[in-house]
Amino acid sequence: MNVTAFASLRATRVWPLLALTVALAACSSGPKRPSPAPLAPVSALVPATLAWNVGVGAVDPLMTPAVQGSTVVLANATGLVQALDARSGQTLWRADAKAPLSAGVGSDGRQAAVVTRQNDLVALDAGGEQWRVRLSARVFTPPLVAGERVFVLAADRSVAAYDGKTGARLWSQAARGTDPLILQQPGVLLAVGDTLVAGVSGRLVGLNPTNGGLRWDAAIARPRGINEIERLVDLVGRVGRVDDQVCARAFQAAVGCVDAARGTLQWTQPADGATGVHADADRVYGVESNGRVQAWKRANGERAWSTDRLLHRGVTAPLAAGRSIMVGDAQGFVHLLSREDGALLNRLSTDGSAVVAGPFLAGNTLIAVTRKGGVYGWRPE
Question: 325-340, pLDDT tens digit by residue?
Fold first, then answer.
């Protein structure tokens, strides 16, 4: 394998799914949720022009897209996968997985991989379906397509690699950790140099992509509390990566950064959030469970700033780009905040349904996907 090519809320019990889903629904039916913070008037200090808008059909919140250069590959709730040109919004190709999906799309720009709710790993490209393999466990994290291989992080915390051309399984690393619960939302799986980095419970682990051998193991958070839900600390996507440093969030427990070249924990700080983080040269950015947006110093984890202007608005994981931190919300807005202090720089509108994927950047186009299946591409100035 060419190592250079390689480098380019819900929770469920690992076995009976229904019982805990119902239990969590009962927990959520308690006190009335706080009203979303009212939106203050905004002047477009960072202008952004809507370049295009297309519809792809209703999108499941788990369906995170894949971005390679100016190509965006995404799937709708029925399993239709399509690649879009981020410069124009035009469809490059479509292929049908023929079933609803349990995880988002992984892609290297040419080949895409998805996992259906029937546990089928399906490889697709412009010519349609290439191959299909039945997995032994559910998957909520998008597959990683890299180096002519497809890597899968399963709900039982196992990691496996499949041949990109044939679907033959190349290796499988047994499940790590004994926590009985796992989040039913995207986790962490990425390439850093010639190392496969996966989130397993509250830890980042570095694996040899050729055989699955363990290279290092760094804990961002450890299970705590007196019951299974309180002890749930799975790492959640997205992550903030700067060079070899990978920063991630452990569900409602902590935010921390790991040197993925050495496998050493650099810092960790308590944090109560359920969505991923992003990073730039100076800071790590995240959103707490109540919608508070905050920043930590990337060098040591000290708090840099926080803002409460988006409290209780169902805010997504952030994106750091240009002068801004960009987040979507459950009312269909994309908010641009200052990287320096969280001040509001602009607000962009969609179709009024929740932003479920993004914001993310493809080339120089800012993209967000809504629950109704609206895909919006803006050009920030």
Answer: 999 999 999 999 999 9
List of residues 6+ apart from 243 with CB closer than 8 A: none
pLDDT at 18: 31
* Under 8 Å between Cβ of 148 and 5: yes
- The whole-angstrom separation of Cα 253 and Cα 234 is 9
Predicted local confidence at residue 141, as pLDDT: 96
86-121 CB burial, b ≥16 within 10 A, e <16: bbebeeebebebebebbbbbbbbeebbbbbbeebbb
Cα(117)–Cα(78) distance, integer angstroms: 11
Residue with tokens 């051998």: 213
Cβ distance 344 to 329 under 8 Å? no
CATH class of 1-8+62-175: mainly beta
Q: What is the DSSP letter of 154?
A: -
CB 137 within 8 A of CB 156: yes
- Predicted local distance difference test score (pLDDT) of residue 273: 94
pTM over 0.70: yes
Contact between 86 and 94 (Cβ < 8 Å)? no
Q: Which residues contact 32 (CB under 8 A, 6 or more apart)?
A: none
Residue of 208, 245, 156 whose CA lies nearest to 6: 208
From the list 216, 222, 209, the residue with the least C-alpha distance to 256 is: 222
Q: Which two tokens stand for residue 82?
A: 């399509």
Q: Which pLDDT tens digit goes with each residue over 287-309?
A: 999 999 999 999 999 999 999 99
Distant-in-sequence, close-in-space partners of 67: CB < 8 Å, separation ≥ 6? 73, 86, 360, 361, 362
Q: Where are the beta strands (DSSP E) in 193-313?
A: 195-200, 203-207, 214-219, 235-242, 245-250, 254-259, 264-270, 278-279, 283-287, 293-297, 303-307
Assign 173 to helix, strand or coil: strand
